[in-house]
Amino acid sequence: MHDTSSDKASILRARARELAREPAPEQPAGNVLSIVAFTLAEERYAFEAHHVSEVLPLEELVPLPCTPAFIAGLVNVRGKMTAVVNLKRFFDLPESGITDLHRIILLSDGTTRFGILADTVSDIRALPVHALQPTLPTLTDIRAEYLVGVTADRLVVLNAAAIISDSKLVVHEEVGS
User: Fold this and answer.
1) Element (H, E) at 90
2) Which of 23, 48, 159, 173 is 20 to 30 A from 106 (CA-CA)?
3) Which residues pair with 32 in a beta bridge?
């Protein structure tokens, strides 16, 4: 017969050793970026998560006449009309049309808020800063302008603050009557 009291004691000792073990040293918060990863034209991109207020499914995108081609339209987010930017057009990437599978990534800096049209949103995760390389030769100048870095597996981390504050994304056009 098995002695269950010695089995229990063995299990308890193993648990006690595990709880008494020194924790692994944590990386300082400054060495890790929290990112929201997404795809555009089958390329992988990310924004730092602190600029992303939320991710929404694409519903009822209303076209906005007399705006640049990169303005996809407006969406209603809890009673507030929010502009949506199509980065594929802004970055001159191939387009495949807009479906109900697309997502809107709401970016905000506290004063300015707009959406970014994404093909998919894949994950939210921590990314070590040391994993970022400065650039890729295949990036166009306009994308390089907003670049934080690129990982070895070709995830392009974009500077959301630079995109939010870019005057090229502000439409100052008036329609004459």
Assistant:
1) helix 87-90
2) 173
3) 128
